[in-house]
């Protein structure tokens, strides 16, 4: 790091601020995906970054300095840490941190940190990422429109391969089956994909639990308003 470079900024402060990404910062969004979990606080480096976050809530992106941060979810009174992790943020990158696990087994609670790719999809396309974060569920396959297997054998705590799938914008249904099976355990879920947007579909809930059934949380991560000439 050549810190003396920062001194050049003062010559063109306005231009630098508008045309260049802010160096030294990253963006992080947090998803509360602990099935049947209580409201939580999201604590970053010992300070509350988000308070009273409910199950299934997806935050906006928070701007944080790049580097290593201690991220934790705690009870809202701060008396108990439910899960924590050190997350290393690279310069000018976006991340999603998903709190997941089964609240009936506190040792299962964990934070999954994913680097987001919010680059703009091609014209008429959307990008879709699938994250398996349904505690206790076996590996799954994901189907589009009940006929095409788009992600295969995705295990708990991981993302589909490829991580981001380019899909035609428009109406789509997604269904989830156990890997290698055609028995639908979740879906069909109607999804409307807009051109130029990037989505994360996060499997949530618990298998066979009527209070917190399997469901999908859909996060719109990016919106590109590219003008095509």
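Q: What amino acid sequence fits the structure above?
A:
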């Amino acid at each position: 790091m050549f810190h003396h470079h920062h001194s050049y900024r003062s010559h063109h402060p306005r231009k630098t601020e508008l045309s260049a990404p802010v160096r030294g910062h990253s963006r992080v969004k947090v998803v509360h995906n602990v099935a049947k979990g209580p409201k939580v606080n999201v604590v970053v480096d010992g300070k509350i970054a988000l308070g009273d976050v409910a199950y299934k809530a997806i935050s906006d992106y928070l701007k944080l300095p790049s580097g290593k941060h201690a991220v934790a979810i705690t009870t809202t009174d701060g008396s108990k840490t439910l899960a924590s992790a050190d997350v290393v943020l690279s310069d000018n990158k976006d991340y999603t941190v998903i709190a997941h696990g089964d609240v009936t087994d506190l040792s299962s609670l964990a934070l999954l940190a994913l680097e987001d790719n919010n680059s703009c999809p091609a014209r008429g396309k959307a990008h879709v990422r699938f994250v398996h974060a349904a505690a206790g569920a076996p590996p799954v396959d994901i189907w589009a429109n009940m006929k095409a297997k788009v992600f295969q054998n995705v295990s708990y705590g991981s993302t589909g391969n490829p991580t981001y799938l380019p899909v035609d914008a428009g109406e789509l249904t997604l269904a989830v089956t156990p890997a290698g099976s055609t028995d639908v355990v979740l879906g069909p879920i109607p999804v409307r994909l807009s051109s130029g947007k990037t989505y994360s579909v996060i499997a949530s809930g618990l298998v066979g639990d009527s209070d917190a059934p399997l469901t999908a949380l859909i996060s719109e991560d990016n919106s590109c308003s590219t003008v095509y000439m």
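Q: And what stands out in the fold?
A: The chain has two domains: 23-116, 119-229.
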